[in-house]
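Ops channel
N.P.: pipeline sanity check, posting one input/output pair.
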């Protein structure tokens, strides 16, 4: 974590800025371990160069707590002895962590190369967002997952922050070690750890429909964008009544299966992707069996998954104070400029 990131971080509980306590720093630049303290009594750790701004961050990083127990406030030590926090969104977080551990190091993810991902980024961005317009801008990839988009944007010259709730942040940081203009934060869109009106562009592709409240997640993102700047999202479109009922039934089973079992089962229906069109366009015509299996796993593994219409999403933009709303060719993708 670079000290500059402190300019954009705030306590998700009260919105106040953090006080930084450094335990370990590399070359006077990269803060590898430390604490983020708020005067409302909230405290979050910095572990492996990443601020972990989640309620259970200490409980899920016991090695860090043991290493620095003499420096931790008494309140944290007591909490560890008598844990009161459940891991938020445990199933969804765990499923995506498993997915990125299995698939994030492939040369092609969802059947896309790094170059394909860059083309996809602009496909899901408003027409006036270009490589030139993004240069030196502050961009948020909300739900950065495997980190390919963060890497691509960093190489364009943007200052990029990648946010994710799970292990995707560690993979993103590892992928982007060669860049000094990226930041990575482990946190929750619904409890945003960023100050309002911080970003010049927010890109959120295939993420908020995996939260308990897609509409509220959109509202949280809309508060982070500067006036006159753009927010771009893509969410799953609502299908026919038969599709919705059948998928809800199948997912009621698959979301309860053990991760490894589901992982292996997802290789079986891969040939069906040549018949059932995927949102990523992935099929055996253009991708490997394993790449197709990831698409199946991505669809059937997380607990939270909502589907939306164009009119519904456009209404979100309008009610949150956006204009110049642009609807993309792939439903349901949309962008708008904050008034």
């Amino acid at each position: 974590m670079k000290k500059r990131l402190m300019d954009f971080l705030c306590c998700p509980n009260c919105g106040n800025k953090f006080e930084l306590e450094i335990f370990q720093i590399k070359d006077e630049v990269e803060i590898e371990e430390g604490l983020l303290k708020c005067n409302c009594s909230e405290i979050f750790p910095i572990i492996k160069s990443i601020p972990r701004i989640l309620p259970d961050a200490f409980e899920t990083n016991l090695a860090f707590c043991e290493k620095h127990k003499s420096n931790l406030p008494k309140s944290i030590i007591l909490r560890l002895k008598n844990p009161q926090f459940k891991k938020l969104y445990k199933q969804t977080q765990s499923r995506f962590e498993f997915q990125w551990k299995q698939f994030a190091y492939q040369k092609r993810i969802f059947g896309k190369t790094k170059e394909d991902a860059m083309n996809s980024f602009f496909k899901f961005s408003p027409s006036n967002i270009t490589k030139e317009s993004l240069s030196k801008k502050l961009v948020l990839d909300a739900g950065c997952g495997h980190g390919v988009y963060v890497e691509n944007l960093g190489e364009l010259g943007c200052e990029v922050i990648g946010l994710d709730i799970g292990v995707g942040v560690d993979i993103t940081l590892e992928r982007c070690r060669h860049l000094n203009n990226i930041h990575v934060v482990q946190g929750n869109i619904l409890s945003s750890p960023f100050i309002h009106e911080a970003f010049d562009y927010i890109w959120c592709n295939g993420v908020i429909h995996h939260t308990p409240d897609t509409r509220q997640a959109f509202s949280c993102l809309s508060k982070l964008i500067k006036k006159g700047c753009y927010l771009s999202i893509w969410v799953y479109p609502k299908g026919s009544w038969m599709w919705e009922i059948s998928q809800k039934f199948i997912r009621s089973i698959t979301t309860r299966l053990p991760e490894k079992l589901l992982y292996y089962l997802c290789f079986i229906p891969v040939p069906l992707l040549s018949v059932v069109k995927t949102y990523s366009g992935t099929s055996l015509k253009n991708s490997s069996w394993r790449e197709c299996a990831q698409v199946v796993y991505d669809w059937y593994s997380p607990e939270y998954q909502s589907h939306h219409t164009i009119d519904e999403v456009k209404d979100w933009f309008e009610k949150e104070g956006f204009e110049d709303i642009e609807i993309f060719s792939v439903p349901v993708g949309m962008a708008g400029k904050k008034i």
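N.P.: looks fine end to end. The CA atoms of residues 18 and 38 lie 5 Å apart.
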